[in-house]
Amino acid sequence: MQAIELTDVSKQFKNFSINNLHLRVPTGSIVGLVGENGAGKSTTLHMIMQALKKDSGTIYVLGVNNEADEFLDVKQKVGVVLDEAYFPETLTAKRIQVVLRNVYTAWDDDAFDYYMEQFKLPYNQVFKDFSRGMKMKLQLAVALSHHAELLILDEATSGLDPMVREEILDIINEFTRDERHTVLLSSHIVSDLEKSCDYIAFLHQGRLKFMEEKDGLLERFRLLKIAPEEINDLTINQAAIKGQRVSRYAVELLVDKAALSSSDTVFGDLEKATLEDVMILMTKGVKQL
Ligand SMILES: Nc1ncnc2c1ncn2[C@@H]1O[C@H](COP(=O)(O)OP(=O)(O)OP(=O)(O)O)[C@@H](O)[C@H]1O
């Protein structure tokens, strides 16, 4: 069962496009959307929520086409934190609570009060006087206070201090203890995603490079560090090299273990790669060795 399904989704801006994007977010999972600045993460999340119209393709959210009339009901079950979707500047959290009580049929004052307390947020301060971290926390408190089944979080942890990020990641993990609950989140802070996600979807220049289970991904991709002069002695299937980083003293190769041939003799020297290594080296690509 998929909580979100994008099929052949395309969007054309003047200087950027998303082409035929296929993305599946399995129910009960935490999926991290990673990619460089301008890779198309926010565009994708906005299209899922209909905050931005796609040019073509289909998007299903919790089993409903997001262009169908019933999508309004689905929105009730989705908690959203989009980067700039802030509340009116002059409203206090207390007023926001009153307004949202009438917006969400399943609004839960106890849950909201719980998160206000948990996040140490003030009820009577106007939204414009909140710090960035407080604004993010308030959005998250709202997202978690109407019995959502799906959370869509765009950069919910960026710009926040490590303690608050940890707090937010804990809450996300807690949320997915219920197997019907799903989270799709984007973040620049790849280590946050590495910690909490089940799957990683990597967008690069508007294209999905891969979407894989995190553990399998980190098992499959390895780093081979060698001195530049050792390059010519290397016996390795070129197709197994997925990226490279060259400095004066070392060459780092991102190696896909699954694509190594039996005659390759590099197994002993392969080191574990972090998710950040995989992203950076893949983005750099491979020049002829
Ligand atoms: N309304 C728009 N009109 C024209 N171009 C746009 C519009 N919105 C986004 N873009 C372009 O689309 C590209 C992708 O932007 P997007 O915000 O989706 O990237 P992102 O991966 O979320 O980046 P970041 O990590 O920096 O937030 C960028 O080149 C951006 O300039």
Automatic annotation (TrEMBL):
GO terms for molecular function: ATP binding; ATP hydrolysis activity. Coiled coil: none annotated. Residues 1-230 form the ABC transporter domain. InterPro entries: AAA+_ATPase, ABC_transporter-like_ATP-bd, ABC_Transporter_VariousFunc, P-loop_NTPase. Keywords: ATP-binding, Nucleotide-binding, Transport. It comes from the Bacteria. It holds the Pfam family ABC_tran. PANTHER family: ABC TRANSPORTER ATP-BINDING COMPONENT (PTHR42939:SF3), ABC TRANSPORTER ATP-BINDING PROTEIN ALBC-RELATED (PTHR42939). This is ABC transporter.
